[in-house]
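Internal tracking record. Fields below are filled automatically when a chain is submitted to the structure queue. Please do not edit lines marked as system-generated. If the sequence contains nonstandard residues, flag them in the REMARKS field before resubmitting.
Queue: standard
Priority: normal
Entity type: single polypeptide chain
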Amino acid sequence: MARTVIDVDDALLAEAAEIFGTKTKVATVNAALEDVVKRRKREAFFNRLVEGRLPDLTGPVDRPEAPEAAPDEHPVPAVRDKAA
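SYSTEM-GENERATED OUTPUT FOLLOWS
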């Protein structure tokens, strides 16, 4: 995480901390940043939905083939039963 020095409105920071239930300035700023990013992404998705710019999801969905699982490089040894 980068360390940044910024001037913040103390009243807005206190109000945001109350809204998010955070106790530190760092937690409050991070919660506010996360909130605004999520809100903008939801808004963009909603706008695409309203404008009809989403793919047609009424038919079958083509799924890419799953990649083959690589062999385990570090296999876990079997646990032996102590009673045996």
